[in-house]
Amino acid sequence: MWGLVRLLLAWLGGWGCMGRLAAPARAWAGSRGGPGPVLLRNRRSWVWNQFFVIEEYAGPEPVLIGKLHSDVDRGEGRTKYLLTGEGAGTVFVIDEATGNIHVTKSLDREEKAQYVLLAQAVDRASNRPLEPPSEFIIKVQDINDNPPIFPLGPYHATVPEMSNVGTSVIQVTAHDADDPSYGNSAKLVYTVLDGLPFFSVDPQTGVVRTAIPNMDRETQEEFLVVIQAKDMGGHVGGLSGSTTVTVTLSDVNDNPPKFPQSLYQFSVVETAGPGTLVGRLRAQDPDLGDNALMAYSILDGEGSEAFSISTDSQGRDGLLAVRKPLDFETRRSYSFRVEATNTLIDPAYLRRGPFKDVASVRVAVQDAPEPPAFTQAAYHLAVPENKAPGTLVGRVSAADLDSSASPIRYSILPHSDPERCFSIKPEDGTIRTVVPLDREARIWHNLTVLATELAPHGPPVCKWPSRSWTRMTTLPSWLSPTTPSCVILQPPAS
């Protein structure tokens, strides 16, 4: 009997399934016609316990996966085999007479890995149990039918430029729905399909690392790396899946500022007041953000006295401005040096410095048309009373600061001499009386004299006026004209 059982199991093993003997202490006495369970031989009547079926197996007819047999079955046709449980009657069917179990359709282990069923042998005529119900399992055996997938892909990662070789960038993880406990169907190996020689991947963990030193963001900022995961330990015939990793190099301060030219030339009119913008300088720095911020300074003393330089609100440009009043007639140009320096310096990259640069600056002061200037702001003159018309009172003088050759013309503003008591020679500023003056009637005369620069090589057109105040006193006729008789007073309000 046991030889027949073993032969049966060997035959079933050819179908990819096997039975396992158990050793229970009881048998069902009803199979011998007794009143109930009694102690019998030290072995179980059922010769099966577990079956296997290969997933995805499909054929034109139902596939035999195993056979149930009880040793109470004498082959007389009196025994009927029943099957209940998961998939009984639909997925699995049993031949009532022989106990053969067939699977009727293709199974997917990833949907359901095993089925639990109950088998029982009963008397065909009376349906009386010949054996107690016994549970057994049909396991779906895995095949490599699922490629690896990256559920979190595509990936994005950032790593600082100039990172050392082996710097960790990101870890990618693939999943394989096949059975990890059976064969190599779910044993994955990672490789780089695209992204060499810049990046590598650990074949077991999926950690992506830098593979070359000194990757420069200013040369290439972004890399597209393709990572493959292949099952069957990476061997030929394995299934594979891939994902992309977009790696962005973040900026570090590895570039010093550099002026694009060695000399900057500007011009500013002499009348520009303090704070007037003269020009902009920009040292180029290919770094980003705070790594490109700069401070500017004037190195030479003569430049820092007349001009100042500051950084604009963006931290990139140097703003050159007038610091004190300029005078074309005193100094016509300034030459000095300007330095641009990074404000944030990373000690790790000092070897790539120095993080500063110097350029020369020349500022030309432009002449501005200026009004003539009197030699005195106020003149105090005296003349005896009762002198004949045409008596000389004195002379005022003005000069053109821009050009000594420019002609000057003088005139008395009418509102300052409403009685027209005085005249002035337009060419030289000589003031004379027009009528006799009476000291008892009026002691002081306040005149406003206008000096006008004429346009060169043209008609006498007023170009720039300038004023001076002349205050005169009338001396009594008995007083010597050489005797001082006036005091210095402030000029009247215009």
Quick gist of this model?
The protein is mostly beta strands and 494 residues long. 4% of the residues lie in helices and 39% in strands.
What's the layout of helices and strands?
Blueprint: H1 2-13, E1 26-27, E2 38-39, E3 50-54, E4 63-67, E5 79-85, E6 92-94, E7 100-103, E8 114-123, E9 134-141, E10 155-160, E11 168-171, E12 189-194, E13 199-201, E14 207-210, E15 222-230, E16 240-250, E17 263-269, E18 277-282, E19 294-298, H2 301-306, E20 307-311, E21 317-322, E22 333-342, E23 356-366, E24 373-374, E25 378-384, E26 392-395, E27 398-399, E28 408-412, E29 422-424, E30 430-433, E31 444-454, E32 462-475
Parallel strand pairs: 3-9, 10-16, 17-23, 25-32
Antiparallel strand pairs: 1-2, 4-7, 5-8, 6-7, 8-9, 11-14, 12-15, 13-14, 15-16, 18-21, 19-22, 20-21, 22-23, 24-27, 26-30, 28-31, 29-30, 31-32
Subcellular location: Cell membrane
GO cellular component, one term: catenin complex
GO molecular function, one term: beta-catenin binding
Protein model, in words:
This protein has 2 helices and 32 strands. It has 494 residues and is mainly beta. It has 4 domains: 50-141, Immunoglobulin-like (Sandwich), CATH 2.60.40.60; 155-250, Cadherins (Immunoglobulin-like, Sandwich); 263-366, Immunoglobulin-like (Sandwich), CATH 2.60.40; 369-456, Immunoglobulin-like.
